[in-house]
Amino acid sequence: MIKAIRVHELGGPEVLKWEDVELGEPKEGEIRVKNKAIGLNFNDVYFRKGVYRIPTLPYTPGREAAGVVTAVGPGLTGRQVGDLVAYAGDPMGSYAEEQILPANKVVPVPPSIDPIIAASVILKGMTAQFLLCRCFKVEPGHTILVHAAAGGVGSLLSQWANALGATVIGTVSTKEKAVQAKDDGCHHVIIYKEEDFVARVNKITSGNGVDVVYDAVGKDTFQGSLACLKPCGYMVNFGQSSGTPDPLPLSALSAKSLFLTRPSLMQYTATRDELLATAGEVFANVESGILRVRVNHTYRLSEVAQAHADLEGRKTTGSVVLIP
């Protein structure tokens, strides 16, 4: 028996239960991993509340962790007991002391990177990589808008985009978060509770607009984000912390010939080669110092309900990590 978080019904943080569960041995193509650290992400909240559909109830949340291999399935090569590995995405179930994972879904963690750092950056970092390098390829001279710039993904987007030579405009909710966003490479920081971000972006860009908006906030920022774009600009919506955006008629994009996408990491790391390359670039940027991973909050796994409440209440900045 191991301890894990189980969800028997959809709802608020109180539905996250600390329970005993059975965990078998790895089968062919699988490994067993003892988690050292588990990443907390806003999509965990979406699943818990039913915004994203879960296959069955009850379920164990979590889609990001780093740990040590404790057993390998029969005939498996390439992984061995004692390896430090990390994973992000599918399968769900990282809110547990140990878990069984497909060997082809994990990536090796360089020995220079602490498991807490690996668990906090693997999902968010790979998200930043595909958003900046493939979904829309950010290059020197581009001006970009990053919403929730002090959050886990937003912090990494700001740092990475700055290193790529872009002018970075970030929105945050408080003065304290503005300080962090500035430190993370935002050239301009907008406290959206104090000023209209569309008007400020318009002023910063002399009315030209930005090349791309990275928006994980959703409903509250969606229309404004579209208004911030220059002609032929890219609207990249990759989350909805404030709720699902209202339906948008295609004609709304035609005035400025805008592009709109709702991407997912899973499609950008669908092959083993894509997964290894994406994770490898993230870890290399951590090792080189391009990315400073801010693990600003840690909670015991058994205290995950409080962690969820704090995340939803926008009381956190940077990455949040759960320790089994």
Provide a descriptive summary of the structure in words:
β12 (229-237), α7 and β13 form a beta-alpha-beta unit. α2 packs across α9 and α5 runs parallel beside α6 (222-228). The chain has helices at residues 42-49, 115-135, 152-163, 175-183, 197-204, 222-228, 251-254, 265-268, 272-288, 304-312, and strands at 2-7, 16-21, 30-40, 64-72, 84-88, 98-102, 106-108, 143-146, 167-172, 188-191, 210-215, 229-237, 259-261, 295-300, 319-323. It is an alpha/beta fold. Strands 3, 4, 5, 6, 7, 14 and 15 form a seven-stranded mixed sheet that branches. A six-stranded parallel sheet has the order 10-9-8-11-12-13, sandwiched between helices. 31% of the residues lie in helices and 27% in strands. It is built from ten helices and 15 strands.
